[in-house]
From TrEMBL:
Leader peptide range in chain numbering: 1-19
Protein name, entry field: Outer membrane lipoprotein carrier protein LolA
One Pfam family from the record: LolA
InterPro entries: LolA/LolB/LppX, OM_lipoprot_carrier_LolA-like
GO biological process, one term: protein transport
Length: 197
């Protein structure tokens, strides 16, 4: 789950200039103060004939973090902030050692807040398309990222709509972000989970 959550932070990544410039993409993606929507996640494992599918809602709050609220096949609330990855146990947020911690958290949160230092040392980006429909491919060039991913692909317009994570061992995860709402009031639980951090 750590890989899937952290990948969402790449929506604020800078990219190499092609037909559609990196500066334009970054400017567009950094505009929203918050994004709320639905997600469907499919995990394709080589050992299984059918993908493992989960779904729920997410909130991305600029400079604060991500709240990932899985609803199916079971309920689970996970937040990712500068303090790490934590899970809601029904009464309080507790460290989720199963999800794990790593230097990647700080990297992705740095990108979320506009701190782009270190990206070029981790990935080689390639941007194709236009402002209305673009695709960003991130190919790892650091030893750490090469151990996890073969590449990551993002697609979108004014917002990221699809993320594909291709792992080195052959597994693949596809995340679809739908029904996105920008800069809308946050539910009380979301506010308490993210704005206090």
């Amino acid at each position: 789950m750590k890989k899937l959550l952290l990948a969402l932070f790449w929506v604020f990544s800078p990219v190499v200039t092609f037909a559609f410039s990196s500066q334009e993409l970054v400017a567009v993606l950094q505009q929203p103060q918050n994004i709320q929507g639905d997600f469907t996640q499919q995990r394709f494992l080589k050992a299984l004939p059918k993908p493992i599918t989960t779904s729920g809602q997410f909130t991305l709050l600029k400079n604060k973090g991500l709240l990932w609220q899985m609803q199916k096949p079971f309920a689970s609330d996970v937040r990712v902030t500068a303090k790490g990855i934590m899970q809601w146990n029904g009464q309080q947020w507790v460290e989720n050692h199963k999800v794990g911690q790593s230097q990647q958290i700080q990297l992705f949160l740095g990108l979320l807040s506009g701190n782009i230092d270190g990206l070029s040392a981790q990935f080689s980006p390639e941007l194709k398309g236009t402002a209305e429909h673009w695709q960003l491919t991130l190919t790892p060039n650091s030893l750490l990222m090469k151990q996890i991913f073969s590449h990551i692909q993002l697609q979108g317009d004014k917002l990221v709509k699809r993320i594909e994570l291709h792992e080195t061992q052959g597994d693949r995860t596809v995340i679809e972000l739908q029904n996105n709402q920008v800069n809308q009031p946050l539910p009380a639980f979301v506010q308490s989970a993210l704005q206090a951090n």
